[in-house]
Amino acid sequence: MFKHATEHRMKKEEEHAYLFQYGITSGLWEFREELAKFLSAKYGDKVHRQNLILTCGATHGLQMILTTIVQPNGVIFVEEASYMIALDALKQFSGMKMVTVPIDSEGVDIAAMENIVREEKSKGSWNVTEEKPFWAVFYTIPIFHNPTGITLPKKRCEALVRAARSLDFLVVCDDVYVLLHYGNAVHPPKRLFAYDATLEGYAGGHVISNCSFSKIMAPGVRVGWLEAPARLINTFRASNGWLHCVPLWTSFFLPA
């Protein structure tokens, strides 16, 4: 598949040579369009091209979020059991305080988390701006959690979105495992981003879905994406230094 895609793409270069140039800051338009169609079919829920920002994988996406839209002295909330590589990446942001929140057999304990978040928010003076609108971020794996395997139930998903809106923190969902579902269900569980977009009308803007092809294709395919709400898209687009790093592979996987 890679051999065929490479040969096809290099022939296109003879007609329109732009493969090795800087691309659109959000990522190649045509690829995001095809990615939106692919995800819409797999999720069973509409994904819009304009909500997608391409990355070099989920770790890059996480670093980009923390660097771009979260206060540099902010708080990072994590579940008491979480993905070790993500935790290592989060520790690199030494100016941010990392705080754990409890989980049980159904995932994060929302009531306990709200108390912890509220207490942490009361301790600081948060100079949030339009460019950096969040004082804190909650890193979570709501679907097929690693390492516990838990999927957050509907009621807790709704409660988490309400808590994020009420206390104004960002939820970053590591959604790399969503498309690995199996069983009788046609589609995987509804991602948290979709709850934020639809719960009690659209007041979305507190959830980002961070994804990658690494888990569903191969780790060496350094192609990922953020599905982000409209209120944050322009801020990400302005981060040219990050987005110009998006790999060339994105232009290989396009229809003939």
TrEMBL record:
InterPro entries in alphabetical order: Aminotransferase_I/II_large, PyrdxlP-dep_Trfase, PyrdxlP-dep_Trfase_major
Any one Gene Ontology molecular-function term assigned to this protein's record: pyridoxal phosphate binding
Aminotransferase class I/classII large domain span: 13-237
Superkingdom, taxonomy of origin: Eukaryota
Descriptive protein name: Aminotransferase class I/classII large domain-containing protein
Source organism of this protein record: Cryptotermes secundus
Lineage: Eukaryota, Metazoa, Ecdysozoa, Arthropoda, Hexapoda
